[in-house]
């Protein structure tokens, strides 16, 4: 324990640690305020030294400067308060702006989704129409081809029978029978030839409604592409 009235070194170091120090000379106590620079408090060395940063400046002792600048500190607080209001207003505007952008983006997404859904629905309808037209085209033409195949197969069989009979009559038959067979064969062959030349069962073209639907579908696709570009 230290004698009464004597401060021990540890306690003295603690007191010194709480004394404000000069930023330029940490070993010196900050006892002056430079009114010219309005920077952190300084020591006497900064004021009196030839190379001191605050030599020839307007300096005041800390207590005097404190009293003198109390009113200016109040003005500074008022300025800071007004600036705070401005920042608050800007922050509020940014918050509302963010919400506004989010609302616009949400509406835009919903609009795009709805537009593409309409396009998909229209495309499905057009696809169904085209598929139905193609199914009808296929069914009608296959029925026509099947019918023609049966008819031509029968005519082919008839022609083969005529050939066989004509050969037989010419080689082995009587003159009258051979001549009659010739006349009948010629008449039959003329009829078969005419039927073959006038037959349109091999002319299978897509129906007109198919061309109309496909053209309409292409036009609508182009229109949707232009509208969504």
Please outline the major beta sheet: 2 strands, antiparallel
Radius of gyration: 56 Å
- Shape verdict: rod-shaped
Q: Approximately how much beta-strand content do the residues carry?
A: under 5%
Category from helices, strands and their pairing? mainly alpha
**Unreliable runs:** none
**What's the order of the H and E elements?**
HEHEHHHH
Portion of residues within helices: over 70%
Verbal overview:
Helix content is about 75%, strand content about 5%. It is mainly alpha-helical. The chain has a two-stranded antiparallel sheet. Helix 4 runs antiparallel to helix 5 and helix 4 runs antiparallel to helix 6 (about 210-229). The model has no long low-confidence stretch (mean pLDDT about 80).
What attributes does this structure have?
two-stranded antiparallel ribbon; mainly alpha; 229 residues; 6 helices
């Amino acid at each position: 324990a230290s004698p009464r009235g004597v401060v021990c070194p540890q306690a003295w170091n603690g007191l010194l640690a709480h004394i404000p120090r000069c930023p330029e000379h940490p070993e010196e106590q900050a006892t002056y305020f430079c009114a010219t620079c309005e920077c952190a408090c300084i020591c006497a060395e900064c004021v009196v030294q030839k190379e001191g940063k605050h030599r020839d400046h307007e300096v005041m002792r800390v207590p005097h400067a404190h009293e003198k600048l109390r009113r200016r500190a109040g003005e500074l607080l008022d300025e800071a308060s007004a600036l705070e209001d401005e920042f608050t207003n800007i922050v509020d505007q940014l918050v509302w702006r963010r919400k506004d952008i989010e609302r616009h983006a949400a509406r835009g997404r919903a609009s795009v989704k709805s537009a593409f859904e309409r396009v998909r629905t229209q495309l499905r309808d057009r696809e169904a129409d085209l598929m139905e037209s193609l199914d009808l085209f296929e069914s009608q033409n296959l029925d026509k081809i099947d019918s023609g195949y049966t008819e031509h197969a029968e005519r082919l069989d008839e022609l083969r029978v005529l050939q066989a009979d004509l050969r037989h009559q010419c080689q082995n038959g009587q003159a009258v029978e051979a001549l009659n067979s010739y006349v009948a064969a010629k008449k039959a062959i003329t009829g078969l030839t005419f039927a073959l030349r006038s037959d349109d069962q091999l002319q299978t073209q897509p129906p007109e409604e198919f061309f109309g639907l496909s053209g309409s579908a292409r036009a609508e696709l182009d229109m949707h592409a232009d509208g969504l570009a």
